[in-house]
Amino acid sequence: MVDRPPRPPRAETRDIVALKQLRVDQPELESAIDMQIALVDMQRRVQGRVPLPWIQLDPEWMRLQQAAGRPLVRFRDIPLEWSDFRLTFRQTADILQRFEAIERTDHEKILALGRDGNALEPLVSGWYEATSGVEAGTDPKKRAASEAPPGLDQVLVLALRPFLARCAEALTQRIDLGNWNHGHCPICGWEPDFAVITPSAERRLFCGRCVAQWSFAALTCPFCSNDDRALITSFATRDGRYRVYACDVCRRYLKAYDGRRTERAVMVAVDTIATLPLDAAAMQRGYVG
Ligand SMILES: [Zn+2]
Ligand SMILES: [Zn+2]
Prior knowledge:
The protein has helices at 14-25, 30-49, 59-67, 82-98, 104-115, 117-132, 152-174, 268-274, 276-284; strands at 192-197, 203-207, 213-216, 232-236, 242-247, 253-258. It contains nine helices and six strands. The chain has a six-stranded mixed β-sheet with strand order 3-2-1-6-5-4, with helices on one face. It folds into two domains: 14-174, no CATH class; 192-284, no CATH class. By secondary structure, the protein is α+β, with helices and mostly antiparallel strands. Strand 4 (232-236) and strand 5 (242-247) form a beta hairpin. The N and C termini lie far apart (56 Å). Helices cover 43% and strands 11% of the residues. The site of one zinc ion has 8 residues, from loops.
C-alpha cells in the first residue's frame, strides 16, 4: 500500500468555523447547527456559480417603487439557471427532511413539484411575485397557496437565497437605500429575520430571504409599524450579546446581535442559530416569530 498524503480539507468559511465552535459551546443545539452547516455549505457552493447580475433600473421607476414601498428586484432580474435552481431546490428539501424540519410525506410532495419541469417554473415565479410585492396590486403578506405542502415556503426561501443574494449584492453596491424606512426588504420585499445594533445604536435589519440589510428605527415594530415604546418589550441575554424586540400590538418579535457590547461583527447564519434559546424565551412570553 502506498501512503498518500491526506487530502487538504476544503477551506472553511468563517460561518462554518464559527458554527463548529458553537457546537462545542452549546452542544444542546447540535442538530440545528448541523442543519445550518449543511445549508450554508450548499448555498455557498451554488452562490459561487451564480453570476453577478447586471440589473437595469430606470431611475424614475426606481424612485416610484421606493416611494410606494415596493422592492426593486423583479422576477426576470434574478439570474436563475433552471437546472441549477432545480438541484438547489431538491438539495434544500433533502437537508430539511434529513434534520426533520419537514415531514417525509411533504418532502415527497415537494420533490415531485421539483421534478415536474412544467410545474416548478410557474410555481416559483408566481410565488416570488406574490411574496415580493414588486408589482403594484400584489400583497406581499400572502404566502404559498394554502393547498401547498407545509414546508414549501421554507424550501423556496432557502433555495432562492443564493440567486437573490447575488441581486442584493449587485444592487446595494449601486444604489442608496438610506431613504427606505419600511419594515420589509427593499430588494426582494420579504420580512426581516434578524437585526444588528451598531456601535452607534442604530438598528439594521437583515432580510430573511436575500440577506440584504437596511436601517430601521430601533423601537418600531417592522411587522406592524407600531412605534409606541410602551408597547415594545425588549430583553437581552445575560451576557448582553443578543436582544429581542417584541411587539405588544401584533405579538411578533425580532432578535438582534448587540454590536455595542461585542468585539466581532454580526454573522447572521451563526447568530440566528446561537439565539435559538431566545426564540424559546420569546415564545414562552406569548410572542410569535
Ligand atoms: Zn430581501
Ligand atoms: Zn408589531
